[in-house]
Amino acid sequence: MRVGIHPVSRPVVYRDRAADVAFLTRSTADSARTIEWEDGNTYPVIDVEVSSASHPFYTGTSRVMDSAGRVERFERRYGRAASSTR
Q1: InterPro entries in the record, alphabetically (predicted)?
Q2: How many CA atoms lie within 13 A of 34 on its CB side?
Q3: Is 23 strand, coil or helix?
Q4: Residue 85 domain-assigned?
C-alpha cells in the first residue's frame, strides 16, 4: 500500500437517537462533538437517524404509509393544473 493516501481510521461512537442506542466502532468519519464511553475514554460521536436498532427491516416492525395523504400533498404542492394541461 502507498503511504499517506489512506484516511486515518479511529474509534467513533455512532448514536441512534430514535432507538436511544449507541455503539463504538472504527471509522474514518470525524466529529467535533465527543462523548465519554463506558470504558472511560472520550470518543467523537456521530448521530444517525437510522441504524439496525431502529430500522423496520431489522426490528420486524412495519410502518403504515399514508399514500393518499402523500398524493394530496403532491397535488397541493405542484397543483392539478400541470397534469390537466396535456
Answers
A1: Ribosomal_bL28/bL31-like_sf, Ribosomal_bL31, Ribosomal_bL31_B, Ribosomal_bL31_sf
A2: 6
A3: strand
A4: no
pTM given for the model: 0.60
User: pLDDT tens string for the chain (86 positions)?
Assistant: 688 898 989 999 999 888 889 999 999 998 999 999 999 999 999 998 888 777 766 667 666 556 667 778 888 888 876 555 55
Going by DSSP bridges, is the β-strand pair 10-16/42-48 parallel, antiparallel, or unpaired? parallel
Give the Cα separation of 60 and 54 in Å (integer). Answer: 10
- For residue 16, the tally of other CB atoms under 10 A from its CB is 18
Residue 45 lies in a domain: yes
Residue 3 falls inside a structural domain: no
> Within a 10 A sphere around the Cβ of 84, how many other Cβ atoms?
7
